[in-house]
Model the fold of this input.
Amino acid sequence: MNADLSATAECPVCGIQIQLAADAIQGELIECTDCGTELEVVSVNPPQVKEAPQEEEDWGE
Done:
C-alpha cells in the first residue's frame, strides 16, 4: 500500500500532471516541471492550480 499523501493537479498551460508537495499550501507558487510556467496553488483539497499572475516591473515609480 502506498502511504504517499501528496496529490497531483493538472497544469492549465500544458496539461501535464504536477505533483504537489505533501505540505503545499493555498497561495504557494510552484513551477510546472514540463513547461516552466509559474503556477499558484488555488486549492489543496481538491488539488488545483492556476497560472500565476504576471507582476509588472515597478522601475522605481
